[in-house]
Amino acid sequence: MAQSNLYIGLMTGTSLDGIDAVIVDMQGTTPRLVASLGAPLPPLLRAQLLQLQSASHDEIHLAQLAANAHSLASADVVAMLLEKAQLKPDAIRAIGNHGQTIRHRPELGYTLQIGNHALLAEHTGITVVGDFRSRDVAAGGQGAPLVPAFHQAVFASPHQNRVVLNIGGIANLSWLGQNQAITGFDSGPGNVLMDLWIHQHLGVNYDADGAWAASGQILPDLLTRMLNEPFFALSAPKSTGRDLFHHAWLEQHLLGRNDKPADVQATLCALSAYSMSQAILSQGRPDKVLVCGGGAHNQQLMRLLAQQLPGPVSSTASVGVHPDWVEAFAFAWLAERCINGLSANLPAVTGAQGPRILGAIWPN
Fold this sequence. Notes:
α2 runs parallel beside α3. The chain starts with 5 loop residues before the first strand and ends with a strand. It has a 6-stranded mixed beta sheet. A 5-stranded mixed beta sheet has the order 10-9-8-11-12, sandwiched between helices. Strands 5-6 form a two-stranded antiparallel sheet. It folds into 2 domains: 6-143 and 324-362, Nucleotidyltransferase, domain 5, CATH 3.30.420; 148-311, Nucleotidyltransferase, domain 5, CATH 3.30.420.40. It has 14 helices and 13 strands. It is α/β, with parallel strands linked by helices.
């Protein structure tokens, strides 16, 4: 019996807003999205994961419990996705499971994405590929971003210089030039600071459509102060996360100020847009910018990006892939590379010593 070319990709990102799941057909030259589904994180699990973003009492125990809960929630999403696609587990070759990042410290030689992959394999009856970032870090790389090679496979054009801009909690970009090597790196905050601020003041998890940011005024002095963050001046390869851009970082910049909350939100939106656009322009002038991730739905953020970039800015839906599914799609692609013994990192992007097969396998 021929082995399946169908893979599932699972992704929970820095924003902690939900579990994204896709089925991808890897047969042929271009991967094809077969089915997709998103589910919110159970509130208790989201709270556990947020608590683990910083050091706490008994965190090893708490991390293991959260890893189990994450995998059980992921197994439920896989079951719903298979039912939607009218497929049985044995139709899937493997699941690519990113897990949830709770520490990313490549400068110290480690990155940690929790998730009990063995438990996920047990509950789904499907082989699981996980822990994608560690091998790149072991080879001297940042372990991030891992998606530029996938972006090249799906979004590159022989006729245009394109940028794929993924705006999750943290933003990362892939520069897909016509006559140059692919580059990619984290540019800084995407939604993470805006999400923190609106939750603190309005009790919601994100700024729907960027409406609250659009209602405020950008504070130039605060924006300049935030842009002095040394990370923005670093050369690639570079990556970041909640280890840097967190509540204490924000409070430090607001110390002694008494700004209107909506104006702070407007400024945080401008910070994300400006740092992303400057990161893109540091590589050249793109013909087209394709945006994916939750930030693609933030209309104010998209307006600011369009004002600062020379070419059109649109979501990846304009080239056939809904922005909500791009990262899960990428981890299905990464799983297929691992199963077939193919390298998936780009040393020029991550800084690793060479190409590496990424991920570990938990067979069914």
